[in-house]
Amino acid sequence: MSAHYFNFALVTGASGGLGSSLVAEFLNDPAIDKVVAVSRSEKARVEYPANGIGDKLIWVKSDYSEAALDEVLSMLEPHAGKFSRVCICHGVLHSSTFWPEKRLEDISESALQAIFQANAVVPALWLKSLMKVLKGSNDCIVAALSARVGSIGDNHLGGWYAYRASKSALNMILKTAAIEYGRRAKNVKLIAFHPGTTDTELSKPFQAAVPKDKLFTSSFVAERLATIMDEAVVDGELSYLDWNGQAIDW
Ligand SMILES: NC(=O)c1ccc[n+]([C@@H]2O[C@H](COP(=O)([O-])OP(=O)(O)OC[C@H]3O[C@@H](n4cnc5c(N)ncnc54)[C@H](OP(=O)(O)O)[C@@H]3O)[C@@H](O)[C@H]2O)c1
Protein backbone atom coordinates (compact mmCIF):
# COMPACT_ATOMS: atom_id res chain seq x y z
CA MET A 1 0.00 0.00 0.00
CA SER A 2 1.55 3.30 -0.97
CA ALA A 3 1.40 6.00 1.70
CA HIS A 4 0.45 9.09 -0.35
CA TYR A 5 -3.32 8.54 -0.48
CA PHE A 6 -5.33 10.80 1.73
CA ASN A 7 -8.90 9.62 2.18
CA PHE A 8 -9.54 5.97 3.04
CA ALA A 9 -12.69 3.94 3.68
CA LEU A 10 -12.69 0.60 5.51
CA VAL A 11 -15.39 -2.06 5.21
CA THR A 12 -15.17 -5.16 7.41
CA GLY A 13 -17.28 -8.21 6.63
CA ALA A 14 -16.93 -7.03 3.06
CA SER A 15 -18.27 -9.98 1.12
CA GLY A 16 -21.78 -9.97 2.62
CA GLY A 17 -24.77 -8.41 0.86
CA LEU A 18 -24.53 -5.05 2.62
CA GLY A 19 -20.73 -5.16 2.94
CA SER A 20 -20.21 -5.61 -0.79
CA SER A 21 -22.68 -2.84 -1.67
CA LEU A 22 -20.90 -0.50 0.75
CA VAL A 23 -17.58 -1.34 -0.92
CA ALA A 24 -19.20 -0.47 -4.30
CA GLU A 25 -20.63 2.76 -2.85
CA PHE A 26 -17.19 3.90 -1.64
CA LEU A 27 -15.47 2.80 -4.87
CA ASN A 28 -17.88 5.08 -6.73
CA ASP A 29 -17.27 8.02 -4.38
CA PRO A 30 -14.64 10.30 -5.96
CA ALA A 31 -13.90 11.82 -2.54
CA ILE A 32 -12.48 8.48 -1.37
CA ASP A 33 -9.04 7.47 -2.64
CA LYS A 34 -8.75 3.92 -1.30
CA VAL A 35 -11.23 1.33 -0.07
CA VAL A 36 -9.85 -1.34 2.25
CA ALA A 37 -12.20 -4.35 2.36
CA VAL A 38 -11.64 -7.06 4.98
CA SER A 39 -13.33 -10.44 4.64
CA ARG A 40 -12.95 -14.14 5.36
CA SER A 41 -13.20 -14.60 1.58
CA GLU A 42 -10.05 -14.74 -0.50
CA LYS A 43 -11.50 -12.23 -2.97
CA ALA A 44 -14.62 -10.18 -3.67
CA ARG A 45 -17.68 -12.25 -4.53
CA VAL A 46 -19.12 -9.53 -6.77
CA GLU A 47 -17.60 -7.87 -9.83
CA TYR A 48 -16.52 -4.30 -9.17
CA PRO A 49 -15.58 -1.91 -11.97
CA ALA A 50 -12.13 -2.72 -13.37
CA ASN A 51 -10.65 0.48 -11.99
CA GLY A 52 -11.98 -0.50 -8.57
CA ILE A 53 -10.26 -3.86 -8.54
CA GLY A 54 -7.03 -2.71 -10.13
CA ASP A 55 -6.48 0.51 -8.36
CA LYS A 56 -8.77 1.75 -5.63
CA LEU A 57 -9.75 -1.47 -3.86
CA ILE A 58 -7.47 -3.27 -1.40
CA TRP A 59 -8.92 -6.68 -0.47
CA VAL A 60 -7.61 -8.24 2.75
CA LYS A 61 -8.41 -11.78 3.84
CA SER A 62 -8.81 -12.26 7.60
CA ASP A 63 -10.39 -14.76 10.00
CA TYR A 64 -11.02 -11.95 12.54
CA SER A 65 -9.06 -13.66 15.32
CA GLU A 66 -7.18 -11.22 17.55
CA ALA A 67 -3.89 -12.28 15.94
CA ALA A 68 -5.33 -11.80 12.44
CA LEU A 69 -6.70 -8.36 13.34
CA ASP A 70 -3.23 -7.40 14.65
CA GLU A 71 -1.86 -8.25 11.18
CA VAL A 72 -4.52 -6.13 9.45
CA LEU A 73 -3.81 -3.28 11.83
CA SER A 74 -0.07 -3.33 11.18
CA MET A 75 -0.94 -2.97 7.49
CA LEU A 76 -3.27 -0.02 8.19
CA GLU A 77 -1.07 1.79 10.71
CA PRO A 78 1.04 3.68 8.12
CA HIS A 79 -2.26 5.28 7.06
CA ALA A 80 -3.37 6.31 10.55
CA GLY A 81 -5.52 9.45 10.50
CA LYS A 82 -6.56 8.98 6.85
CA PHE A 83 -9.75 6.97 7.40
CA SER A 84 -12.95 9.00 7.06
CA ARG A 85 -15.42 6.11 6.74
CA VAL A 86 -15.58 2.73 8.49
CA CYS A 87 -18.43 0.22 8.13
CA ILE A 88 -18.45 -2.85 10.39
CA CYS A 89 -20.82 -5.27 8.67
CA HIS A 90 -20.57 -8.59 10.53
CA GLY A 91 -23.77 -10.41 11.30
CA VAL A 92 -25.23 -13.90 11.62
CA LEU A 93 -28.90 -14.82 12.10
CA HIS A 94 -29.13 -18.44 10.91
CA SER A 95 -26.86 -21.17 9.60
CA SER A 96 -27.04 -24.82 8.59
CA THR A 97 -26.83 -25.70 12.32
CA PHE A 98 -28.98 -23.03 14.01
CA TRP A 99 -32.15 -21.05 13.43
CA PRO A 100 -33.71 -18.04 15.23
CA GLU A 101 -35.43 -19.26 18.39
CA LYS A 102 -39.23 -19.14 18.63
CA ARG A 103 -39.35 -20.10 22.31
CA LEU A 104 -37.05 -20.62 25.30
CA GLU A 105 -36.68 -24.36 24.59
CA ASP A 106 -34.98 -23.51 21.27
CA ILE A 107 -32.06 -21.75 22.99
CA SER A 108 -28.73 -23.49 22.37
CA GLU A 109 -25.37 -22.74 23.93
CA SER A 110 -23.44 -23.23 20.69
CA ALA A 111 -25.79 -21.00 18.67
CA LEU A 112 -25.64 -18.26 21.31
CA GLN A 113 -21.86 -18.40 21.24
CA ALA A 114 -21.60 -18.37 17.43
CA ILE A 115 -24.05 -15.49 17.08
CA PHE A 116 -22.48 -13.40 19.84
CA GLN A 117 -19.04 -14.04 18.33
CA ALA A 118 -19.97 -12.67 14.91
CA ASN A 119 -22.42 -9.96 15.97
CA ALA A 120 -20.80 -8.50 19.09
CA VAL A 121 -17.33 -9.91 19.78
CA VAL A 122 -15.79 -9.29 16.35
CA PRO A 123 -17.12 -5.68 16.15
CA ALA A 124 -15.75 -5.08 19.69
CA LEU A 125 -12.32 -6.31 18.59
CA TRP A 126 -12.42 -3.92 15.62
CA LEU A 127 -13.31 -0.97 17.88
CA LYS A 128 -10.39 -1.87 20.15
CA SER A 129 -7.91 -2.35 17.31
CA LEU A 130 -8.92 0.64 15.22
CA MET A 131 -8.55 3.33 17.91
CA LYS A 132 -4.94 4.15 17.01
CA VAL A 133 -5.60 4.09 13.25
CA LEU A 134 -8.73 6.28 13.35
CA LYS A 135 -7.47 8.88 15.83
CA GLY A 136 -6.38 12.04 14.05
CA SER A 137 -7.42 15.51 13.00
CA ASN A 138 -9.85 14.51 10.20
CA ASP A 139 -13.44 13.53 10.96
CA CYS A 140 -14.04 9.79 10.86
CA ILE A 141 -17.52 8.25 10.90
CA VAL A 142 -17.80 4.63 12.03
CA ALA A 143 -21.06 2.76 11.36
CA ALA A 144 -21.63 -0.70 12.80
CA LEU A 145 -24.48 -2.71 11.31
CA SER A 146 -26.85 -3.27 14.21
CA ALA A 147 -30.60 -4.00 13.95
CA ARG A 148 -33.85 -2.60 15.31
CA VAL A 149 -34.50 -5.95 17.02
CA GLY A 150 -31.57 -5.09 19.33
CA SER A 151 -33.75 -2.37 20.86
CA ILE A 152 -35.07 -3.45 24.27
CA GLY A 153 -37.80 -0.79 24.21
CA ASP A 154 -38.97 -1.91 20.76
CA ASN A 155 -39.22 -5.62 21.62
CA HIS A 156 -42.95 -6.33 21.44
CA LEU A 157 -42.86 -9.67 19.60
CA GLY A 158 -40.25 -11.74 21.50
CA GLY A 159 -38.34 -14.63 19.90
CA TRP A 160 -34.92 -14.51 18.21
CA TYR A 161 -33.15 -14.56 21.59
CA ALA A 162 -29.57 -14.86 20.42
CA TYR A 163 -29.77 -12.39 17.53
CA ARG A 164 -31.70 -9.78 19.55
CA ALA A 165 -29.40 -10.10 22.57
CA SER A 166 -26.23 -10.01 20.45
CA LYS A 167 -27.40 -6.76 18.81
CA SER A 168 -28.30 -5.26 22.23
CA ALA A 169 -24.80 -6.27 23.37
CA LEU A 170 -23.33 -4.67 20.26
CA ASN A 171 -25.24 -1.45 20.99
CA MET A 172 -23.88 -1.36 24.56
CA ILE A 173 -20.33 -2.00 23.32
CA LEU A 174 -20.77 0.84 20.81
CA LYS A 175 -22.19 3.18 23.47
CA THR A 176 -19.31 2.46 25.83
CA ALA A 177 -16.78 2.83 23.01
CA ALA A 178 -18.37 6.15 21.96
CA ILE A 179 -17.68 7.50 25.45
CA GLU A 180 -14.05 6.36 25.30
CA TYR A 181 -13.49 7.50 21.69
CA GLY A 182 -15.02 10.84 22.78
CA ARG A 183 -12.17 11.15 25.27
CA ARG A 184 -9.30 9.58 23.33
CA ALA A 185 -10.13 10.13 19.63
CA LYS A 186 -12.42 13.15 19.46
CA ASN A 187 -12.50 13.09 15.65
CA VAL A 188 -14.47 9.80 15.62
CA LYS A 189 -18.28 9.50 15.54
CA LEU A 190 -20.01 6.12 16.08
CA ILE A 191 -23.35 5.06 14.59
CA ALA A 192 -25.34 1.88 15.31
CA PHE A 193 -27.20 1.44 12.03
CA HIS A 194 -30.40 -0.47 11.25
CA PRO A 195 -30.59 -1.09 7.50
CA GLY A 196 -34.24 -2.17 7.38
CA THR A 197 -35.07 -5.54 5.87
CA THR A 198 -32.62 -5.86 3.03
CA ASP A 199 -32.45 -8.54 0.36
CA THR A 200 -29.35 -10.52 1.43
CA GLU A 201 -28.56 -14.11 2.43
CA LEU A 202 -29.20 -13.17 6.06
CA SER A 203 -32.83 -12.14 5.50
CA LYS A 204 -33.68 -14.53 2.64
CA PRO A 205 -35.64 -17.11 4.70
CA PHE A 206 -37.75 -14.36 6.30
CA GLN A 207 -38.65 -12.24 3.30
CA ALA A 208 -42.01 -13.84 2.44
CA ALA A 209 -43.84 -11.85 5.12
CA VAL A 210 -42.21 -8.55 4.13
CA PRO A 211 -44.24 -6.22 1.84
CA LYS A 212 -42.36 -5.57 -1.45
CA ASP A 213 -41.89 -1.86 -0.74
CA LYS A 214 -40.35 -2.69 2.67
CA LEU A 215 -37.70 -5.06 1.25
CA PHE A 216 -34.73 -2.94 0.25
CA THR A 217 -31.89 -3.67 -2.15
CA SER A 218 -28.46 -3.59 -0.55
CA SER A 219 -27.35 -0.84 -2.97
CA PHE A 220 -30.27 1.38 -1.85
CA VAL A 221 -29.30 0.85 1.80
CA ALA A 222 -25.59 1.45 1.08
CA GLU A 223 -26.48 4.76 -0.56
CA ARG A 224 -28.68 5.69 2.44
CA LEU A 225 -25.89 4.86 4.92
CA ALA A 226 -23.31 6.79 2.89
CA THR A 227 -25.61 9.85 2.98
CA ILE A 228 -26.20 9.47 6.73
CA MET A 229 -22.43 9.25 7.26
CA ASP A 230 -21.89 12.35 5.08
CA GLU A 231 -24.37 14.28 7.23
CA ALA A 232 -23.21 12.95 10.63
CA VAL A 233 -21.85 15.41 13.19
CA VAL A 234 -18.85 14.36 15.27
CA ASP A 235 -20.36 14.89 18.73
CA GLY A 236 -18.83 12.17 20.91
CA GLU A 237 -22.20 10.38 21.07
CA LEU A 238 -23.46 7.06 19.72
CA SER A 239 -26.42 7.51 17.37
CA TYR A 240 -28.82 4.58 16.82
CA LEU A 241 -30.35 5.29 13.43
CA ASP A 242 -32.43 3.50 10.82
CA TRP A 243 -31.96 3.63 7.03
CA ASN A 244 -34.09 6.79 6.92
CA GLY A 245 -31.87 8.58 9.43
CA GLN A 246 -34.57 8.28 12.15
CA ALA A 247 -33.42 7.68 15.74
CA ILE A 248 -34.39 4.30 17.25
CA ASP A 249 -35.49 3.89 20.86
CA TRP A 250 -32.86 2.03 22.91
N1 LIG B 1 -30.32 -8.03 5.70
C1 LIG B 1 -31.15 -7.53 6.63
O1 LIG B 1 -32.39 -7.52 6.45
C2 LIG B 1 -30.61 -6.95 7.90
C3 LIG B 1 -31.52 -6.36 8.81
C4 LIG B 1 -31.02 -5.82 9.98
C5 LIG B 1 -29.67 -5.85 10.24
N2 LIG B 1 -28.81 -6.44 9.35
C6 LIG B 1 -27.39 -6.48 9.69
O2 LIG B 1 -26.61 -6.04 8.60
C7 LIG B 1 -25.32 -6.65 8.65
C8 LIG B 1 -24.94 -7.24 7.29
O3 LIG B 1 -25.78 -8.33 7.03
P1 LIG B 1 -26.20 -8.79 5.54
O4 LIG B 1 -27.66 -8.65 5.46
O5 LIG B 1 -25.33 -8.13 4.55
O6 LIG B 1 -25.90 -10.34 5.66
P2 LIG B 1 -24.92 -11.30 4.85
O7 LIG B 1 -25.01 -11.05 3.40
O8 LIG B 1 -25.23 -12.67 5.34
O9 LIG B 1 -23.49 -10.85 5.36
C9 LIG B 1 -23.04 -11.32 6.61
C10 LIG B 1 -21.78 -10.63 7.00
O10 LIG B 1 -21.32 -11.13 8.25
C11 LIG B 1 -19.96 -11.53 8.17
N3 LIG B 1 -19.86 -12.78 8.93
C12 LIG B 1 -20.58 -13.93 8.77
N4 LIG B 1 -20.20 -14.85 9.67
C13 LIG B 1 -19.22 -14.28 10.43
C14 LIG B 1 -18.44 -14.73 11.51
N5 LIG B 1 -18.57 -15.97 12.02
N6 LIG B 1 -17.53 -13.89 12.04
C15 LIG B 1 -17.39 -12.63 11.55
N7 LIG B 1 -18.10 -12.15 10.52
C16 LIG B 1 -19.01 -12.97 9.96
C17 LIG B 1 -19.64 -11.72 6.69
O11 LIG B 1 -18.31 -11.28 6.46
P3 LIG B 1 -17.24 -11.96 5.43
O12 LIG B 1 -17.00 -10.94 4.39
O13 LIG B 1 -16.05 -12.20 6.27
O14 LIG B 1 -17.86 -13.20 4.90
C18 LIG B 1 -20.66 -10.78 6.03
O15 LIG B 1 -20.20 -9.48 5.94
C19 LIG B 1 -25.39 -7.67 9.79
O16 LIG B 1 -24.85 -7.10 10.96
C20 LIG B 1 -26.87 -7.89 9.97
O17 LIG B 1 -27.19 -8.32 11.28
C21 LIG B 1 -29.25 -6.99 8.19
CATH topology: Rossmann fold
Q: Residue share in helices? A: 25-40%
Instruction: List each distinct ligand once.
Output: NADP nicotinamide-adenine-dinucleotide phosphate
Number of helices: 6
Radius of gyration: 17 Å
Uncertain residue ranges: none
Distance between the termini: 40 Å
Average of the residue pLDDT scores: 95
The H-level CATH homologous superfamily, spelled out, is NAD(P)-binding Rossmann-like Domain
The coarse silhouette is globular
Q: Major β-sheet, in short?
A: 7 strands, parallel
CATH class: Alpha Beta
CATH architecture: 3-Layer(aba) Sandwich
Structural class from helices and strands?
alpha/beta
Percent of residues in beta strands: 15-25%
Description:
The protein has a 7-stranded parallel sheet, sandwiched between helices. α3 packs parallel to α4. It has a single domain, classed as 3-Layer(aba) Sandwich (Rossmann fold). The protein has 6 helices and 7 strands. By secondary structure, it is α/β, with parallel strands linked by helices. The model has no long low-confidence stretch (mean pLDDT 95). The site of NADP nicotinamide-adenine-dinucleotide phosphate (NAP) has 28 residues, from α1 and α4. NADP nicotinamide-adenine-dinucleotide phosphate binds next to α1 and α4.
Keywords:
250 residues; alpha/beta; Rossmann fold; seven-stranded parallel beta sheet; 7 strands; 37% helix; binds NADP nicotinamide-adenine-dinucleotide phosphate
